[in-house]
Specification:
- The strands form two sheets. A 14-stranded antiparallel barrel has the order 1-2-3-6-7-8-9-12-13-15-16-17-18-19.
- The protein is 9% helix and 54% strand.
- The chain is globular, with a radius of gyration of 22 Å.
- It contains five helices and 19 strands.
- Strand 6 and strand 7 form a beta hairpin.
- The longest helix has 17 residues.
- The N terminus is likely disordered.
- With 367 residues, the protein is mainly β.
- The protein has one domain: Porin (Beta Barrel).
Length: 367
């Protein structure tokens, strides 16, 4: 069977298997891992997040673990981003190292949080139905933060084909009021042809399970608001997403053009304005990059393309640039996190990576 037919049959089987998870009777969390959905790496995000087939460095542990096999030397990277005009801070770090000529391992850490949230619950006198005397003395602060830990592994199975897996652990907390643990696995593959590269990342293929616990004592002051319906702990499911990518790398003169397109197939119906068919929503992304002499790069992309009901087509543009010298790369990405018509502000992303280019660290050659 030719490769395109095999690929089509495989993707159809994946869609059928993933869509069947919707029959589960447990509660589905539409935005249970949304803090990870925005992506990582200023280079990737400047290209609109179209990176499933492009990722070939330490950031591949997130985009497509199979891309880790493209690395020749160990690498470490870090990214900081400010979202919603600085209201939400996002930090990410990763490290990857070739183990053998056919395997690579990687680790990553994520934190997304809103800090210094004021807690005024103790400043209210419920019996008198008014603030306490000197209410400022009773106001405290807390943070709402989400954490994730990834462990990735990639394996070369054919000269042009690599596969990968990323196991991830999620920790979410809302001050001392509530917290949750979650876990799941991503499975991926990357095929590098003569002209095109293909990638697939089956995100949360096992379905992410999140278990919430609530400290009822800390919520006691909310009884007047919630009555008998105080929040309680429970289990949520985050359904799988199939992320597909294709890229074309075209050398020209003293530079290289890269064109990429991704398509996410989601099964949780989280965006009513997305393109959808038979309960599956489609989320396309486009990106382009030009790199001159492997030193300077400029990038642009469309991070979100959707049909907004009553308004028409809505697209979210991104731009960015990068510089590379020796083993050090510095990248910047700029984008409107919530659409041009939104008042939620823009996002700035800055990434720094370092490649340990010592002969002793080089990936062993294939025998």
């Amino acid at each position: 069977m030719p490769l395109p037919n095999r690929l089509s049959a495989f993707l159809l089987l994946v869609a059928l298997l993933l869509s069947s998870t919707q029959a589960d009777a447990q509660r589905v969390a539409k935005y249970g891992a949304d803090f990870l959905a925005g992506g990582v790496g200023a280079r990737a995000l400047a290209m609109g997040g179209a990176h499933v087939a492009v990722a070939s460095d330490a950031d591949a542990v997130y985009w497509n673990a199979a891309g880790l096999m493209a690395m020749e030397f160990p690498e470490a990277s870090y990214m900081h981003a400010e979202r919603f005009s600085g209201s939400v801070s996002f930090d990410y770090g990763s490290a990857a190292m070739p183990l053998t000529d056919r395997s690579t391992v990687a680790f990553a850490f994520f934190r997304s949080g809103v800090n210094d949230i004021k807690n005024t619950l103790d400043a209210w006198d419920a019996e008198r139905d008014q603030p306490k005397a000197n209410p400022g003395d009773f106001v405290t602060s807390f943070s709402a933060a989400d954490y994730a830990f990834f462990v990735g592994y990639a394996r070369q199975v054919r000269p042009a084909l690599a596969v990968g897996v990323s196991a991830k652990l999620i920790r979410r907390s809302i001050g001392s009021f509530a917290s949750a643990w979650g876990y799941s696995v991503d499975a991926s593959a990357r095929y590098v042809g003569q002209r095109y590269r293909f990638g697939i990342n089956l995100q949360d293929i096992t379905t992410m399970l999140q278990s919430w616990s609530v400290d009822a004592g800390n919520l006691a002051n909310l009884e007047t608001v919630f009555g008998d319906d105080l929040p309680s702990g429970g289990t949520e499911l985050v359904l799988p997403v199939a992320r597909l990518g294709i890229a074309r790398v075209q050398p020209t003169g003293q530079g290289v053009f890269t064109f990429a397109a991704d398509l996410d197939l989601a099964f949780d119906g989280q965006d009513a304005n997305a393109f959808d068919l038979a309960n599956i929503s489609f989320h396309p992304r486009l990106g382009a990059e030009y790199t001159h002499l492997d030193v300077a790069s400029i990038r642009l992309g469309l991070a979100r393309i959707r049909q907004v009901r009553g308004e028409g087509l809505d697209m979210t543009p991104t731009v960015g640039a990068g510089l590379k010298y020796g083993g050090i790369a510095i990248d910047y990405g700029f984008g409107d996190f919530a659409g041009l018509a939104s008042e939620l502000g823009f996002s700035h992303r800055i990434s720094v990576s370092y490649e340990f280019r010592k002969e002793a660290y080089r990936r062993p050659s294939v025998d």
